[in-house]
Amino acid sequence: xAAIEVRDLVKTYVLSETHRVEALRGLTxxxxxxxxxxxxxxxxxxxxxxxxxxxxxxxxxxxxYRLMGRDVARLGNDERARIRNEEIGFVFQSxxxxxxxxxxxxxxxxxxxxxxxxxxxxxxxxxxxxxxxVRLSDRATHAPSQLSxxxxxxxxxxxxxxxxxxxxxxxxxxxxxxxxxxxEILDTxxxxxxxxxxxxIMITHDRQVAQYASRSVELRDGRILTDExxxxxxxxxxx
Amino acid sequence: MLKRIPLxxxxxxxxxxxxxxxxxxALETAFQSLRRYPLRTALTLLGLAFGVAAxxxxxxxxxxxxxxxxxxVRAAGLNVIEITAGNYRTRGERPIGGVxxxxxxxxxxxxxxxERLLRKIEPVALAHPENDPMEKHDHPTAAERLGDSAxxxxxxxxxxxxDAEAIASLSGVAHVASGIHESVRVFAGDRRWFTRxxxxxxxxxxxxxxxxxxxxxxxxxxxxxxxxxVVVLGSVARDQLFGQNEDPVGREVTIWNQAxxxxxVVVSTNWMNPGAPGDDEFDAVYTPFTAxxxxxxxxxxxxxTVTAASSGRVTEVxxxxxxxxRERHGIGETQADDFTVTTQASEVLGKGLHPKVxxxxxxxxxxxxxxxxxxxxxxxxxxxxxxxALLLAIALVSLIVGAIGISNVMLLSVRERIREIGLRMAVxxxxxxVGSQFLTESVLLGAAGGVLGVVIGAVAAVVVESSFxxxxxxxxxxxxxxxxxxxxxGVIAGVSPARRAARLDPIVALGSE
Lengths: 239, 513
What we know:
The structure holds two protein chains of two kinds.
Chain A: E1 2-14, E2 20-32, E3 36-40, H1 47-54, E4 62-67, E5 70-71, H2 77-87, E6 88-91, H3 103-108, H4 120-133, H5 149-161, E7 167-171, H6 179-196, E8 199-204, H7 207-210, E9 215-220, E10 223-229
Parallel strand pairs in A: 3-8, 3-9, 6-7, 7-8
Antiparallel strand pairs in A: 1-2, 1-4, 4-5, 9-10
Helix pairs in contact in A: 4-5, 5-6
Chain B: H1 9-18, H2 21-36, H3 38-76, E1 80-85, H4 113-127, H5 142-153, E2 159-160, H6 161-168, E3 173-188, E4 191-200, H7 204-207, E5 211-216, H8 221-225, E6 230-234, H9 235-242, E7 252-255, E8 258-268, E9 284-288, H10 289-296, E10 300-301, E11 303-308, H11 314-328, E12 339-343, H12 353-361, H13 365-416, H14 418-426, H15 431-468, H16 476-502, H17 506-511
Parallel strand pairs in B: 4-9, 6-8
Antiparallel strand pairs in B: 1-11, 1-12, 2-10, 3-4, 3-7, 3-11, 5-8, 6-9, 7-8
C-alpha cells in the first residue's frame, strides 16, 4: 500500500505580478509504506518545496496528494497541524532543539499537541522509550548544549518518533555533521526503517548519503529526473 | 471556585489534569517557557510589580490621608455652634439671622492701623496692676471675675443658665454646655500656674471630640448639681502643676483660695492641635459651672456651646437659637443682638486678612483657633488630594511602563523564539495552541507581577507609615483592585504578541535565523 501518492504536483510562488517561480512543475511520485527513499537534487531543484508539501507544512498550487490514503492537498492550517502531529516526524539539518529544555523534554514536545495529549507520566514514559530507540537513554536529562552534534540529531529523531508516526521526513539530516557521525545517523534511519517498517524520506544533495536509501529519486527543475532502486542495502524495498 | 484554591503540589496537578487538554498544554508550555528564561521573567515581573506596588501604595496612602483628615475635621467639630455673650463683630462677618451691631473697629483697616491700635491698647491693658499675670493677688481680678472681654474690650455677660436650658429643648440640638470663663492662678503644692478656667457642663466632653481622658474622668452630673469643687486639668496645666505625664487624680489644687479635687486629666487626640501653653483647651482647667457661680456669686454665662445633631442642621439650629435668644432677651426688631452666634461652617475661608486680625483684637481667640484649624484641614485635604492625584499619575505611568514592558518582552520573546514557534507548529501545534501559550505567559506574568506588586505595595505602605508617620490604610479592596489591574495588564499586553506568534508561517519560522 502506498504511504504517499502524489500526482501532477505544481507549486508556484508568486513573488510579484511579473515574477513567478515554478518550484514544482507537475511532479508525480508514489512511495510505499516501509520504503527508505532519498530525494536528491541540487539547490533550486524543488526538493525543499517537495519536502514542505509532503510534510503538510505547505499546500500545493495544484495537483493531488494522498498521505496514508487520505487526501491532504487542500486541508486547512489546523488540520494539517493535526496530520503533522500524528503521521509525520521531522528531522532537520539544524536539529531545531529547544536550547533550554532537556533531551527528554524535547522529545516530549509533539505529545503536548494534537488530539490525544497524554498526561505528564505517560508523556515521560513514551519519551524515554523514544530515546531508548535512538540509544540515548543515558542522556535524557542533558541539555542540547551538553550533547554532541550526533547526539543532538538523535534527540531530534527520538522527538520525530515520539507520536509513532508512519512517515519520517528528514531534510539534510547529516548536513551539519561530520562524515562519521553522519553515517551513524543514516544507520539509525536504516535501522528504524528495517526494524519498524517506518517510511523514511530523506532529502539530500549528497549522492553518497542518498545511497543509504533503498530507492533514490533525483529532482531537476521541479520534475523527477531519475527514479531508481538501490540494491545491496539492508533496507526493505517497497512491496 | 474559591473553595478549591490549590493548597499543595498534588492538588495543583489534579486541577491541571482536570482541565481541557488545550488549556493544560497552554499552561504547561507557558510555565516551561517562563521557567527556562528566569532572568527575563524576573525582570518583566519586577517592572510590572513596581507599577502595581505604586498603585497599591497610592490607594493606601490616599485612603489613609483622607481618613486622617476626616478624623481631624470631625475632631475639630464642624457642627459646633458657639454662643458668646455680647456682640462685637467685624465687618465682613454677618450674624446668622440677627441684626448686625454697629462695628466698633471693624471698618476696613487702612495699612498700619493695626499696629497703631495695638500700640494704643497694650499700655492700657497692662498698666493696671491687676492685669499683670505674675502679680500675686488674694482676690479675683476684674479680668478674672468678668472674663477678658468684659475687663478689656467690653463684653456683656448677657447669657444665663436658663438660656442654656431653653436652647437644650430646641429641636436639632444634641449637646449644650454652659460656659463661664475666667483666668485663674492655680496652686498645687509649691507650684502655680496662670491659666484659663472653664466653668462648664458635663456635655462638654461630647462636644469636644478631640478630648480624651488620660487619667480619671470628667466631672459627673451629680457633682454639677451639687456645685462640687472638683476640677479636670488640661494636659498642659497638669504638666505645669504636677509634672509631665503625672497622674494627679485624687490630689488637690487651690483656686481662689478654695480647694478643688482633681478628678481627671484631658489630652488631645488631634495631632493638629496637640495642646500647648497658652491655648484655650489644654492649658485650662474645667470645673462645674455651678461651682464657679457659687464661688463668684454669679448667675451669668460667658458662652454656651452647642452641637447640632448633624452638621447639615447647623445653620437651621443657629437660626432658631438666635430667634429664641432675641425673644428671651426682649430684643426689638431694629435692635442688635446682645449675643453672638458663631458656627464654624458659616465662616468662609477666603476672608480677607484684616477682619481676621480685627477679630483677634476683639478677643475672640478660641474662634480664631478653630478657623485656623479648619483652614488647616482644608489645606491638608487639598494638598492630600493633590498628592493622591500625583501619586496616582505616577502609579498609572508605572503601570503603563509595566504593561509596555510585558508587551515588549513578549514581542521580543516571540521574535527570539520564532524558530521554536516554527518547530512547535511542525510537530503539530495549532494556531490556537501557539496563541494561547503566549497569551498565557503574559497573563501568568501579569498575575505573578500583581501578587508581587500587592505585597511590595503593602509593605511599602506600612514602611511609609512607620518611618514618615503618614496615615496609611491598606485594604483588601485596594489589593484586589491592584491585582485585577495587573491581570488585565497581562491580558492586554499579551494579545498582540500572541496573535503575532499564532499567525507565523511554520516554513518561514523554521527557516529564520
